[in-house]
Structure formats: structure tokens, C-alpha cells
Amino acid sequence: MALFLCFFLFLLLSSSSASACDRCLHHSKAAYFSNASALSAGACGYDSLALGLSGGHLAAGVSSLYKDGAGCGACFQIRCKNPSLCSSAGTRVTLTDLTQSNQTDFVLSSRAFRAMANKGMGQAILKLGIVDVEYKRIPCEYKNQDLAVRVEESSQKPNYLAIKLLYQGGQTEVVAMDIARVGSSNWNFMSRNHGAVWDTSRVPAGALQFRFVVTAGFDGKWIWAKTVLPADWKTGVTYDCGVKITDIAKEGCSPCDDGHWG
Fold first, then answer.
1. I need a surface site. Which of 47, 166, 190, 233 has the fewest CB within 10 A?
2. Which CA distances in Å does 160 have to 69, 213, 234?
3. Do 126 and 113 contact (CB within 8 A), yes or no?
4. Domain locations in the chain?
5. Cβ 164 vs Cβ 150: under 8 Å
């Protein structure tokens, strides 16, 4: 685990630059799905819980944004570039799915797509179907909600545990995760099963704690959740981790753009 973390930090540091910013402005196109359930049932594995992440303002992103699942739950501010049709503020979306489109960086829920439009222009933007956009990564904010884990129904005591990460704040990605019995320093690694779902077949007995490596600044950092699952944990239940993630991971932008809309 230590070797992995060192290698991970080396990659982050070697890819950063003096012009790195909190967030970079990107230009692409966006389309939409008429049914938001197609996005909530997507590759991240959030299912119906996705609708509670950003009020139905959901997005599928290309593989460079999905990042093999590490991008699940990331928040973006996105606006279309037609000033006569769209507002200057745009809308914020949460990434919940992967798109294989070679035309757009995003496929949005219809609610999020309409939200980019000026008042009264929602149907007009829907008729276009695809629009030029600019977007930036922004921190996710869950003011009254800590990081949480949901025990998946596929979990089977005593040997197999699958959990889904929810309400990951800040502008971060979880890149590694360990599990241990509360009070023990004997950590076992967990693997990303898919999207926001992590699992292990080496489940300690008793109450369980987790630790995470998240992207932060130009590096990674450990975050400990010291008492999360009780010894009698149950499938289908969401447990509060008791920690908030508020860190900001830097991007290397060329040219540097600190996230201000032009």
C-alpha cells in the first residue's frame, strides 16, 4: 500500500505545473438524455440515490472525466455558448455515468440541459439537441451531510463487503481505500468494483473503520473514518462516516484559467 501511495504521489507531482489552477475551463459540446433514470442507473452505480446528489442535474461524462470510476460524483459548472439562448451562469451537474460519445464531453439529464437556457427558452434549447459548451470542475458541497457509505445488497457476511461512497465533498477523487477493525492497525486494501462501489473479500470481524487516499492540492492525503460500520452492519443501509471532504485538487491548465467565466 505504501509503495502504491508513493507512486501515486510521484505521478501527481510530475504532472503538475507552475501554471496549475484550482480548476480549468474546457470547451466541448453537450447533448441530453430525455430520461434522467438512464443516468442514475449508469456506470457509477448510484441508482436512484443519484437523484439526491444534485436535484436531478446529472451528467454522463467521457472516459477522461469518468476516470475508470474515480470521477463518479464529481461536480461541474457547465454553460452553453449561445448568449441569445443561454444564461451566463449555466448550471451545475454531478457526474453519475460514462458516455462513449465521440461528439460531446457530456450527456446531461434534460433537466440540467434546460437549466442552461435563459428563462422561457428551455424548449428551444431542447430542440437543438446538442450545443457548444464550456465547463469547469467545481467543488461538491453537502453542507449538512458527511461522507457516507452504503452497504450494497451483494455483501455477504462474514467474508464479502461491497460499499458505495456517497456525498463526497470538495474537488477530489478517492484513489485508494483500506478497511480495518475499529482499534486495529491491521489494514486490508479494498478494490474499486465499479464506479463508486468498492469491495473486499477480507472483512475483519467486529465494528469497522475506513481510511481513504484522496487527491488534494498537488498531492494525495489520507482521510480516516474511525468508526463507520457497526459489528452488525446490514445490507441496504447507509452509514455516516463522520468526516467531510473539502479538499481541492489542482489541475494543470494551459493557459491557466482559475475558473472565472469569460
1. 47
2. 21, 22, 12
3. yes
4. 26-137, 147-243
5. yes
CA-nearest of 215, 228, 203, 93 to 147 is 228
Main-chain phi, psi angles of 162, to 5 degrees: -125, 130
Check: CB of residue 171 under 8 Å from CB of residue 23: yes
Residue found by looking up cell 494551459 in the block: 254
Longest dimension (CA), the chain: 61
Question: What's the CA gap between 70 and 28, in Å, rounded?
Answer: 21
Per-residue pLDDT, 13: 38
Please state, in angstroms and rounded to a whole number, the distance separating the CA atoms of residues 51 and 90: 19
Give the separation between CA 52 and CA 65, rounded to whole angstroms.
21
Decide: 247 and 172 in contact? Cβ < 8 Å.
yes
How far from 174 is each of 68, 117, 198, 247, CA to CA, in Å? 11, 33, 11, 11
- Owner of C-alpha cell 465499479: 194
Strand partners, 109: 33
Contact partners, residue 83, CB within 8 Å, separation at least 6: none
Domain 147-243 = CATH 2.60.40.760 = yes
The predicted-structure confidence for 131-173, as pLDDT tens digits, reads as follows 999 999 999 999 889 999 999 999 999 999 999 999 999 999 9
pTM for the model: 0.88
**Read out DSSP for 198-234?**
EEES-PPSSSEEEEEEEEEBTEEEEEEEEEEE-TT--
